[in-house]
Amino acid sequence: MKLAWLFLAPILLFSCSERSKVSNQRISGLDTIVLISALDGAEQSVIVRKATTNSARPLVVGLHTWSTGYSSVEPGLLELIEEKGWNFIHPHFRGANKHPKACCSKYVIDDIDAAIQWALDSLTISSDSIFVLGASGGGYATLCMFLKSRHTVNSFSAYVPISDLASWYAHSDSTDLPYAEDILACTGSESVLDTALANLRSPLQWIKDTATFHSKLTLYAGINDGHSGPVPIDQSIDFYNELIEAMGARDSFRFVSSEEKQKLMQRIPFESIPVGLVGDHQIIFEKRYEGIRLIIFNGGHEMIMPGLLDRL
Question: Is residue 168 part of a domain?
Fold first, then answer.
């Protein structure tokens, strides 16, 4: 072993796998590890909460939002993890999506996979109970990992996600949202978006080239998002439709039709009876195919906390 210094404090540094090195320190009652990227040597901080028992427990992988990093955990999520006594990691994966190594790049994918590998090597985890979730930019990263992760994950939960950078750029630019500038920076574009480069960072555009898919994914979209929030719900609808077609769905009732999509985008009420509740929010529209589920709920740009872990 060798000693290293980080943030002007002594930290024990050791190799935990072929892919990374890790250091341990304590912050506010939570562990924080620092992984070293096998791709470029960059450091990645990861918040860790170990399960409260020695027996194998589930692992929740929380993915941060668009403009934040590892230290910004969704409000209320840690409390739910503590109530369950589960394992939890919250990786940095290149931080805010404002530079070319962020935005679902190969570095992001490797960082998240490396954090999961560290957890598998270091924590006592039920191997069939690994769950990945995130909201907004974290939902974007969740879709990325659904298509690209090398790990076997039990389920993915993407709340109000972005799936297509080019269309989200157009929406953000037309509504003067700052995310348009972020997308230009991520893709290395100048003043005009390079659509081809945006497609390389867009999970929606990866589906057609994906041979196999993970077993379970739920997309959650608030009906008011895109109106009072930054991400229109067609980001979820289009991903769902494209995905189930690639998985072999052929029955039209499995898809969101053009008419249904138009009504949802315009918030035109459906005549059908509401489906039920997701947490404390009314479900107003739902589609399923095999392990893939799309839920449109009465709400906005948010992650629904009540019952979140019971829905995994």
Answer: yes
Question: Looking at residue 190, which CATH number applies to its domain?
Answer: 3.40.50.1820
CA distance 128 to 240: 24
In DSSP terms, 125 is beta-bridged to 57
Give a yes or no: residue 236 inside a domain: yes
Alpha-carbon Rg for the chain, nearest whole angstrom, is: 19
φ, ψ at 94 (rounded to 5°)? 75, 5
The letter for the amino acid at 247 is M
Please report whether residue 59 resides in a domain.
yes
Confirm whether 2 is domain-assigned.
no
Q: Give which of 234, 215, 212 is closest to 223, Cα–Cα.
A: 234
Domain of 155, in residue numbers? 16-311
Report d(CA 110, CA 94) in Å as an integer.
10
In this structure, are strands 281-289 and 292-297 parallel, antiparallel, or unpaired?
A: antiparallel
C-beta neighbour count of 122 within 10 angstroms? 18
pLDDT band at 275 (very low <50, low <70, confident <90, very high): confident
Cα-flanking dihedrals φ and ψ of residue 232, to 5°?
-60, 150
Question: Exposed/middle/buried for 40, CB within 10 Å: 0-12, 13-18, 19+?
Answer: exposed
pLDDT at 269: 85
Cα 243 from chain centroid (whole Å): 16
What's this model's pTM, rounded to 2 decimal places? 0.91
The one-letter amino acid at 58: P
| Secondary structure class of 103 (helix, strand, coil) | coil
Per-residue model confidence as pLDDT tens digits over 80-126: 999 999 999 999 999 999 999 999 999 999 999 999 999 999 999 98
> Whole-angstrom Cα distance, residue 187 to residue 196?
9
Per-residue pLDDT tens digits for 13-46: 222 333 333 444 444 458 999 999 999 999 999 9
With 70 as the cut, is the pLDDT of residue 274 above it?
no
* Domain total of the chain: 1
